[in-house]
Amino acid sequence: MKFTEEHEWLRVEGDEIVVGITIHAAEQLGDVVFVELPDEGTTVSKDDEVVVIESVKAASDILAPIDGEIIEVNSTLSDNPALVNDDPQGEAWFFKMKASDPSQMDEFMDEAAYQKFIG
Amino acid sequence: MSDLQQTPLYDLHLDLGGKMVPFAGYSMPVQYPMGVMKEHLHTRAAAGVFDVSHMGQVMVTGPSWDAVALAFEALVPMNVLGLEDGRQRYGFFTNDAGGIEDDLMFARRGDDLFVVVNAACKEADIARMKAALEPELTVTPITDRALIAVQGPTAGAAIASLDPAADAMRFMDFATLTLDGVEVWASRSGYTGEDGFELSIPEAQVEALVRHLLEIEGVAPIGLGARDSLRLEAGLCLYGNDIDAGTNPVEASLTWAIQKARRAGGDRAGGYPGADAVQAAFETGTARKRVGLAPEGRAPMRDGTPLFDAATGGTQVGEVTSGSFGPTVGGPVAMGYVSEAQAGIDTMLWGEVRGKRLPVTVAKLPFVAANFKR
Predict the structure, then answer these.
(1) pLDDT at B160 exceeding the cut of 70
(2) Is residue A32 part of a domain?
(3) CB pair distance less than 8 Å for B302 and A56
(4) How many domains would you assign to chain A?
(5) ipTM, 2 decimals?
(6) pLDDT, tens only, B197-241
(7) Which has the closest alpha carbon to B179: B195, B194, B165?
(8) How many angstroms separate the CA of residue B171 from the nearest CA in chain A?
């Protein structure tokens, strides 16, 4: 698993990349009450706002970690946003991407580096 | 590294795992490990303790109750003179344009008036009171007492277990209780829509007393996050969001707080700042009105969301001033201002969220029925 400075995790499954937010990020957000997912098939560029997450307190975005295409979204989250708090690094993945340039993955942190990053 | 002030309960908040954030110049717990959602639901199911020591407490004293009350009536459009000893009222300071400078609670304590104002406005409020009331009266900021709220359906039993006299108090009663040997100024009130108390406690004793309260079954510490969602479900205004210096109490739907004695034809009509403007608003109505707003779907409509009269095109007819997710309602709740013509219950409007128009209905306030001990 790779980690971004935006507190996303990325897991490579064949030629797909599964994206979610870290346990740390979910704790910081607090209770998630609404998730707005992108349309499947959307082409995105790195740092595009692709997902909106609302907690009781505030709205925040998930940015596309790399260039590519959204090939699948986890629509379970629309009906059960609380899953983001219950299992952020498991069941509560947000979307799967096909990378335009897989080498963009190289810049991300491994788990040890991420743990150090969040201190 | 920061200039944030701390309340006398700061160390306790840290001990309890509170997540501290800056609020009105103070470092305050936005939530504890339970989290906003569970803290909110816990308050409606059992009881929560809130630190509101950042709010301003002020005692106004003078030669007699009548002198105190009549002078204070020059600042607020409320019937102060008619307040019985041991009773409290909600009110607001107005400006010359009839706008709301701050909202407040005031209670009669013998011949004295005990006033609680918002943290962000307290310096201005104290200056306003001193300028208007002194030297005939004395305005004393109370800086050696903490203020907590204990709210929820089991709050009454929790406080009565420490002083049975609490049991006799009804909504908006004000009395001195003795809790663990400590003299506490108590009002049966709050800002959650639930039964409960607001307690002014000497700062040296407040931590021990709150620790004791937290040992009582069902009593949990609750942060500012849940305080906000609770007051929003209860349809109560947040000063600075839902009301401000540019808001007339009539358009803010707060006319219930202006008693007959101060309205046209009343014994002491007018006589407060902006009385003419408020009276005119009573008679001719206002262009906009504060209403409850129930967004359809799950997306919260935050403050600043513009409201339109059509799904596409149309005109902007209002704006959300407070919006969040209501844990008890189980969906998004909001309030805001809309044009008079759109203010009827069940009027369908559209809020523009991230470029998309989403349906929202004008709804009756409160979203959650009040649970006061009348």
Answers:
(1) yes
(2) yes
(3) no
(4) 1
(5) 0.86
(6) 999 999 999 999 999 999 999 999 999 999 999 999 999 999 999
(7) B165
(8) 29
